[in-house]
Design goal:
- It is built from ten helices and no strands.
- It is mainly α.
- It folds into two domains: 132 residues; 108 residues.
């Protein structure tokens, strides 16, 4: 018994040492311990989100096979999938992944965290191959390799972010004309796609839904990063949660995520 306990303790210590060495290596690669923490969270997030895409699609497929549900599919504007437990499991998995992604933005620069979302593509491609029987051709493999290579380059050469001390500073930066112009263009394109092109071409061309998700996602990334900074500052003793800017960020994040989820379901629905 004593020998068994000693062996278990030895294995536990060895695992802890390996984990410490791995984290130290990540810190050296990314430039700081905060960046290493953000990198670890972002990669974990990609795995969970990639898995959630496959689970939710399976749930959407099952919901579409339910008798009498043909007119209530997500692609037709229906919500039959809300009665499918597997879809909810996928949503819970996605919430876990997005939570890790949200935490990653609090630790590392957005330019480091956001490109690592490409690992989601690789993870979902592998899971779809294993659990949905989807084919992964040479072009897909090449795309996955490019995602991995590009992410590695950005991780290695990501710049250090400027330290912010309040949400007011965030809004001061966001009020610069370049960002205001970009936000206006994104909103204009998104509303045009939603009200003009999605009703006409969405069912026949999935790229309309994907483009809506991507445009809104560019704003949700910025909002998540800003909200993550506010929470990190609060955690460190500078309370930002009572400020109206933080409430505005929370509402923006909720609206962006709700829009993305709606059109992601439409795009994934068979």
């Amino acid at each position: 018994m004593a020998a068994s306990s000693a062996h278990a303790a030895y294995m536990d210590g060895d695992f802890h040492a390996m984990r410490t060495r791995a984290f130290t290596g990540l810190a050296a690669l990314t430039g700081s311990e905060d960046n290493a923490t953000g990198l670890s969270l972002a990669l974990s997030s990609s795995l969970f989100i990639g898995m959630s895409f496959v689970i939710t699609k399976k749930g959407l497929m099952l919901a579409g096979q339910t008798p009498g549900a043909s007119g209530h599919r997500a692609s037709a504007g229906g919500f039959a999938y809300l009665r499918e437990p597997l879809w909810w499991l996928g949503i819970l998995t996605m919430i876990g992944g997005e939570s890790a992604n949200f935490a990653a933005y609090a630790y590392a620069p957005a330019i480091l965290v956001t490109p690592l979302g490409a690992a989601t593509i690789v993870a979902s491609a592998v899971f779809a191959r294993c659990f949905l029987g989807e084919s992964l051709h040479a072009c897909g493999l090449f795309g996955c390799a490019l995602c991995i290579f590009g992410s590695m380059l950005l991780v290695r050469h990501a710049p250090e972010e400027v330290e912010l001390t309040s949400v007011e500073e965030i809004f001061e930066l966001a009020s610069q004309w370049q960002f205001v112009l970009y936000t206006a263009v994104v909103l204009l394109l998104t509303l045009t796609l939603i009200y003009r092109y999605a009703p006409r071409y969405g069912k026949s061309n999935v790229y309309v839904y994907v483009l809506i998700c991507s445009l809104v996602g560019s704003l949700s990334v910025v909002s998540l990063k800003a909200l993550g900074i506010a929470i990190k500052l609060t955690w460190r003793g500078s309370n930002q949660l009572h400020k109206r800017e933080t409430y505005l960020l929370t509402v923006t994040v909720a609206l962006c995520i709700a829009t993305q989820m709606n059109y992601l379901n439409k795009a994934s629905s068979p």
